[in-house]
């Protein structure tokens, strides 16, 4: 009999279980008609994940709760009269409440899944509310699409978005407007099977959440757009100053202004990169979720895809355009700064060349003066040496009476001059060798 494989002898990666659990987390909730599902999303307000998790658990103080999922970043509990899912994301936390309805229970336009949650807990949710969405899930057997169409009034001024999703298995009605603080969807189940109602509800919530999170970049893009208009005009003026710069001082002044402007541009890029990047990511998720709905057009009404193309896509294009304009402006400032630095460097090199030429001229003059001084030095040394020979000859006359001091002095003058010349040349050669050795050592 074979022994079963045992993992106890194998060292596991510390994140193996966590990653697998994360892969299976946040599965769609099985839903049945009719039901109310309400969704809130709050931007983080400085609370840690642990503090927010503890705050979520406070909801169990009023009623017994059964935990379906429970981790540091997501939680699913069943409180009997409602179910709640909490999810912690990078920028926001979401709270989704599910409340089943009785069969045949009439519609209440103001009803939400929060009606069974005690208000003190809802008001204590930390962060700033960014999304409040409500979905009413009904069956077409209880509420027909025709009756919904009959209740739509063209005089209301609202543009209804209607489409069939899941290849025609359900109907979606919405106008993306706020009613009592909620954007509302009506989801009619015609032939959804299994977890399809839960997946449809989850995708609609994600579309609305990601849409709002993506639109957070629009005010930033508008602000950046106003600033870019002025910055681009200033850059054009600085380019005119570069063209008309007539002196190194003018060029250095323009270079200082360009450096200051480069710092401003980089500060703006650093301040907005995260927001624009997040908007781009959320935008991609919105279109992905819309594609997953598999919409079928209803004659006379816009689909979710068409509505987003007309209302949402221009805002995202604006964010992308402002981000690209910032990058282009940063590149232009860098190129112009490099161009001006090149001009300044060329001018400095030209001035250095002129100074080197002047130094060479002065060195040649000094060499000529040195050679002149060396000739005079030979004369002076010869003169002093002849005087010494004269003194010695006059002193030696008393010892050697036949010596003539003037003749001895005259004969010594050429010898003294030759020795002086030889000594000076030898000293100059020794100095030259010493300088050459020093240069090689450097």
Describe it for me?
The structure is a single chain. By secondary structure, the protein is an alpha+beta fold. Among the domains are: 30-197, no CATH class; 217-353. Helices cover 57% and strands 16% of the residues. It contains ten helices and ten strands. The protein has helices spanning 16-24, 49-57, 119-123, 145-151, 196-215, 217-243, 248-293, 304-311, 313-396, 405-441, and strands at 35-43, 66-70, 74-78, 83-88, 92-100, 128-139, 161-165, 170-179, 182-189, 296-297. The protein has a ten-stranded mixed beta sheet, sandwiched between helices. Helix 5 (196-215) runs antiparallel to helix 7 (248-293), helix 7 (248-293) packs antiparallel against helix 9 (313-396) and helix 9 (313-396) packs antiparallel against helix 10 (405-441). It is elongated. The two termini are 83 Å apart.
Find the structural class using helix and strand composition: alpha+beta
Helix percentage: 55-70%
Beta fraction of the residues? 15-25%
Number of H/I helices: 10
Order of helices and strands: HEHEEEEHEHEEEHHHEHHH
Spans where pLDDT lies below 50 across 5 or more residues: none
Mean pLDDT: 84
User: How does the major sheet shape up?
Assistant: 10 strands, mixed
Q: If you compute it from the alpha carbons, what radius of gyration comes out, rounded to the nearest whole angstrom?
A: 46 Å
- Large-scale geometry: elongated
Please sum up the structure shown.
This protein is an alpha+beta fold and 442 residues long. The protein has ten helices and ten strands.
């Amino acid at each position: 009999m074979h022994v079963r494989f045992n993992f106890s002898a194998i060292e596991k990666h510390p994140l193996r279980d966590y990653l697998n659990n994360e892969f299976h987390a946040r599965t769609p909730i099985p839903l049945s008609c009719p039901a109310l599902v309400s969704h809130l999303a709050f931007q983080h307000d400085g609370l840690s994940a642990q503090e927010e998790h503890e705050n979520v658990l406070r909801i169990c103080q009023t009623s017994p709760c059964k935990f379906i999922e429970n981790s540091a970043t997501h939680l699913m509990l069943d409180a009997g009269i409602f179910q709640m899912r909490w999810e912690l994301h990078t920028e926001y936390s979401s709270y989704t409440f599910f409340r089943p309805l009785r069969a045949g229970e009439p519609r209440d336009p103001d009803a939400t899944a929060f009606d069974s949650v005690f208000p003190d807990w809802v008001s204590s949710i930390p962060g700033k509310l960014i999304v409040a969405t409500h979905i009413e899930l009904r069956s077409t057997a209880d509420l027909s699409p025709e009756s919904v169409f009959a209740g739509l009034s063209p005089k209301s001024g609202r543009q209804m978005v209607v489409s069939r999703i899941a290849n025609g298995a359900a109907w979606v009605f919405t106008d993306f407007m706020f009613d009592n603080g909620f954007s509302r969807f009506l989801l009619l189940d015609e032939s959804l099977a299994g977890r399809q109602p839960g997946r449809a509800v989850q995708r609609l919530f994600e579309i609305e959440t990601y849409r709002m999170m993506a639109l957070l970049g629009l005010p930033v893009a508008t602000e950046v757009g106003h600033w870019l208009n002025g910055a681009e005009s200033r850059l054009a003026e600085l380019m005119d100053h570069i063209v008309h710069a007539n002196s190194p001082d003018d060029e250095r002044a323009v270079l200082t202004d360009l450096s200051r402007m480069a710092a401003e541009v980089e500060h703006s890029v650093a301040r907005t990169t995260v927001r624009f990047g997040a908007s781009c990511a959320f935008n991609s998720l919105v279109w992905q979720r819309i594609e997953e709905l598999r919409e079928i057009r209803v004659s006379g009404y816009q689909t979710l895809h068409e509505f987003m193309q007309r209302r949402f896509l221009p805002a995202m294009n604006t964010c992308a355009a402002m981000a690209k304009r910032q990058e282009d402006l940063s590149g232009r400032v860098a190129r112009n700064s490099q161009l001006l630095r090149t001009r300044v460097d060329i001018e400095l090199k030209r001035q250095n060349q002129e100074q080197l030429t002047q130094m060479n001229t002065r060195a040649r003059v000094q060499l000529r003066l040195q050679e002149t001084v060396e000739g005079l030095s030979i004369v002076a040394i010869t003169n002093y040496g002849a005087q010494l020979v004269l003194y010695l000859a006059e002193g030696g006359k008393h010892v050697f009476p036949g010596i003539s001091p003037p003749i001895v002095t005259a004969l010594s003058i050429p010898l003294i001059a030759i020795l002086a010349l030889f000594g000076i040349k030898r000293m100059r050669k020794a100095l030259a060798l010493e300088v050459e050795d020093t240069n090689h050592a450097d």
